[in-house]
Design a protein that fits this description.
Length: 199
């Protein structure tokens, strides 16, 4: 798995053949096929592994927060920290998702995207409404805002593929500031800014 991820990140999805991956891993194709019936099966496993690794990385940082502002900040920062610290994972995932296709020629993972990834953000918004830190959200506003946050985070991952030296901490700081301004009531936003400055 580790060698496959490194290979895809280094040479791209198309060039990362079973033979290439086996060669880099120092194993025969027979050993490869003992563990994975096909390249597609390996790709499925890599996609699962990257998402699960990201979830594990973020979980403690997000769930340990005691305020909605802190939790939203941790959500954005931990997402981008994972991207920064696991560049090969992110590049490999981007390569697989944008290139792997079904026998009919459709993108293999396109149909797996749904709105469940937005639910943690929507829950944070609801909590912020209850505490009075966040503005009031309609259902549509919550989903649009959550989508905007996810799109902003995912765009950083996409940029990283083309720009290995991308200033991810800088992106993280700006995205936190942008989205706290978007969701907080003015008083809460000012307090968050002051708290950040004092830190």
């Amino acid at each position: 798995m580790k060698v496959a991820i490194e290979t895809i990140a280094a040479v791209g999805y198309s060039q990362a053949s079973v033979g290439q991956i086996s060669k880099r891993a120092g194993i025969s194709k027979g050993v490869f096929t003992y563990h994975f019936a096909s390249k597609d099966e390996l790709m499925d496993q890599i996609v699962r592994e990257v998402y699960e690794a990201g979830f594990r990385f973020m979980q403690q940082k997000v769930e340990g927060q005691t305020t909605p502002v802190g939790m939203l900040t941790a959500y954005i920062e931990s997402n981008l920290a994972f991207i920064k610290e696991h560049r090969d994972y992110i590049v490999a995932l981007a390569e697989i998702v944008t290139n792997a296709r079904t026998p009919e020629g459709k993108l293999r993972f396109a149909g797996q995207a749904d709105d469940t990834i937005l639910e943690p953000l929507i829950e944070i918004f609801k909590w912020g409404e209850e505490t009075g830190e966040f503005r009031t959200f309609t259902e549509r506003a919550a989903r649009v805002t959550a989508s905007a946050i996810r799109s902003a985070i995912d765009s950083v991952a996409t940029k990283l593929v083309a720009q290995p030296d991308l200033d991810i901490p800088g992106f993280s700081e700006e995205l936190v500031s942008l989205f706290l301004t978007a969701v907080c009531k003015p008083k809460a936003s000012t307090a968050a800014t002051r708290e950040k400055g004092e830190g």
